[in-house]
Design goal:
With 209 residues, the chain is α+β, with helices and mostly antiparallel strands. It has one domain. The protein is built from five helices and five strands. Strands 1-3-2-5-4 form a five-stranded mixed beta sheet, covered by helices on one side. Helix 4 packs across helix 5. It binds zinc ion. The site of zinc ion has 8 residues, from helix 4 and helix 5.
C-alpha cells in the first residue's frame, strides 16, 4: 500500500505532530519489547548485527524483520500467524489510475495478515541486489505499520483465491506507515551504533540506514 491514497494529498498541518509522536512511541515500545524478548537480547548483542539489517533469509525477507512482523501481528491482532509472499500486484488497486504497487497488505482467513511484495516490479526499478534488499525490508515494515495502526479501518477488496487486498488507506495512514517503517530502521541502526561505540569501535552502522 505504498501509494494507496484515496483523496488529494493535503499539506501536513501542526496537528500531525501528535500523530507522529503516537506512531513513534508505539514503534519504540514494540521494538524494545521485541528486542528484550529476542533469543539474543539487547543486553548481549543487537538483534540486527552489523551488515545483517537487510540480509535476506530463505523466504526472501530478512529473518529478524519477518519475526518482528509476526510479533506485531500477535500483539496487535492476537494472531499466531503472519504470512509474506511475492505476488504480481498489477491491478490490485483499481483506484490508483494505472500505478503499480510495490507491496500490499492482504487478509487471509479471519484476520491473518499477508504482506505481498511485487518482486518483479521492484527488481525492474532497483536492479542492485543490496539496494533492493533494503527496499524489501522497508516495504515489509511499512505494511507492518498498517497492521499495527490501520487494520480495523481497511476493507477487503475483491479476493484472489482465499486472500483479499485491504483497501481504503488514507493519505494520513500512508504517511504513518512510512513513519513507522523509518522509526524501526532508525531504532535498529541506533542499537548497532550504541553497541559499537560502547565497545570502543567507530560507528560502522552507517551503511545500514
Ligand atoms: Zn501503505
Amino acid at each position: 500500500m505504498s501509494s494507496g491514497a484515496t483523496a488529494p494529498s493535503p499539506e501536513p498541518g501542526p496537528e500531525r505532530v501528535d500523530a507522529h509522536t503516537r506512531v513513534t512511541v508505539m514503534a519504540y515500545k514494540l521494538w524494545r519489547d521485541f528486542s528484550a524478548n529476542y533469543p539474543e537480547p539487547l543486553g548481549t548483542a543487537p538483534v540486527f548485527r552489523v551488515g545483517e539489517l537487510h540480509r535476506r533469509a530463505g523466504v526472501g525477507i530478512n529473518k529478524v524483520a519477518f519475526e518482528f512482523y509476526e510479533y506485531c501481528a500477535r500483539m496487535s491482532l492476537g494472531v499466531a500467524r503472519a504470512d509474506v509472499g511475492y505476488c504480481d500486484l498489477l491491478g490490485v488497486a483499481p483506484d490508483q489510475r494505472g500505478t503499480r504497487a510495490a507491496s500490499w497488505l492482504w487478509k487471509t482467513g479471519v484476520k491473518v495478515p499477508m504482506i505481498a511484495i511485487d518482486k518483479e516490479y521492484v527488481t525492474a526499478l532497483v536492479p542492485r541486489d543490496d539496494q533492493r534488499d533494503k527496499i524489501f525490508t522497508r516495504l515489509l515494515l511499512h505494511e507492518v505499520g498498517h497492521v499495527v495502526f490501520h487494520w480495523k479501518d481497511l476493507r477487503p477488496g475483491i479476493p484472489r483465491g482465499d486472500a483479499a487486498p485491504l483497501l481504503g488507506a488514507t493519505v494520513e495512514q500512508e504517511e504513518e506507515a512510512w513513519w513507522f517503517a523509518s522509526s524501526i530502521v532508525g531504532l535498529a541502526v541506533g542499537d548497532q551504533a550504541r553497541r559499537l561505540r560502547a565497545g570502543g569501535a567507530n560507528d560502522a552502522a552507517w551503511p545500514e540506514i
